[in-house]
């Protein structure tokens, strides 16, 4: 029943085969979506090569650099989408970053540049990318982002990223309200802790994963592909009546009091 054939999907945030974005891209491809992949460019081109080799089996029809701190690159990305595809149906936002120094120690010691960086990349980028996608979603569309429990509860060593995720979740709601009349849905997935390149910057990530395995109702953590399945659902017509929602894919950990 889940069929994304004929849908154009732009996926951001793939860094390696542990990325949640990679799990989402695989499931969108499996459902028949036509993929476009963005990567974070670097001077030596290492990331471009690494991501290109990883996504090759998915046969993306677009592969473009997009540093969300560079307005010109964002504009270029969506101009390429318009030129090559004409329209966009799906936008997957899997972008988050905070300086490691701002993910440990006292929260009140968060630096001003660190706060700005975390909110810019992790929160504002969803707003900016959604605004750029809006005129290309001429037949409606679905925007999906990734969040975490640390945006609504205090999680050790999450610090400024918790503020960024809180802002991200409210951005989902405000964007859903704005874009709903255009038949564009905006939702978020709050995934359980997964060992990724981004999460490795959070101190004690392995302890967090083991804790979830002990406490969550399913007595395990989740995989990238399980998050990918939920993303595919949110990008499909099966979720046509849902917008502005945060879905927890965390083996039920979120419901537990202790």
Automatic annotation (TrEMBL):
Gene Ontology molecular function terms on file: enoyl-[acyl-carrier-protein] reductase (NADH) activity
Reactions performed catalytically: a 2,3-saturated acyl-[ACP] + NAD(+) = a (2E)-enoyl-[ACP] + NADH + H(+)
Transmembrane annotation, as ranges: none
E.C. numbers: 1.3.1.9
Metabolic or biological pathway: Lipid metabolism
Record keyword NAD present: yes
EC class of the enzyme, as a word: oxidoreductase
Protein family membership: Belongs to the short-chain dehydrogenases/reductases (SDR) family. FabI subfamily.
The protein's name: Enoyl-[acyl-carrier-protein] reductase [NADH]
Lineage: Bacteria, Bacillati, Cyanobacteriota, Cyanophyceae, Leptolyngbyales
């Amino acid at each position: 029943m889940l069929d994304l054939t004929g849908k154009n999907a732009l996926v951001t945030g793939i860094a390696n085969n542990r990325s949640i974005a990679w799990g989402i891209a695989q499931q969108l491809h499996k459902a028949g979506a036509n993929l476009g992949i963005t990567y974070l460019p670097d001077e030596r081109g290492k990331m471009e090569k690494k991501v290109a080799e990883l996504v090759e089996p998915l046969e993306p029809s677009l592969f473009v650099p997009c540093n969300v701190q560079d307005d010109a690159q964002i504009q270029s990305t969506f101009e390429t989408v318009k030129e090559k595809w004409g329209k966009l149906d799906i936008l997957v936002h899997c972008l988050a970053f905070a300086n490691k120094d701002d993910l440990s120690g006292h929260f009140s010691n968060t630096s001003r540049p660190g706060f700005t960086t975390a909110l810019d990349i992790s929160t504002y980028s969803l707003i900016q990318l959604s605004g750029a996608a809006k005129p290309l979603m001429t037949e409606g569309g679905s925007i999906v982002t990734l969040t975490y429990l640390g945006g609504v509860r205090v999680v050790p060593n999450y610090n400024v990223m918790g503020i960024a995720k809180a802002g991200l979740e409210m951005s989902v709601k405000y964007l859903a309200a704005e874009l709903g009349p255009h038949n564009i849905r905006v939702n978020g997935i709050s995934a359980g802790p997964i060992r990724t390149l981004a999460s490795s910057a959070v101190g004690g990530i392995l302890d967090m994963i083991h804790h979830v395995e002990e406490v969550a109702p399913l007595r395990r953590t989740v995989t990238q592909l399980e998050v990918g399945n939920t993303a595919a659902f949110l990008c499909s017509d099966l979720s046509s009546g849902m917008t502005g929602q945060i879905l927890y894919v965390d083996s039920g950990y979120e419901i537990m009091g202790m």
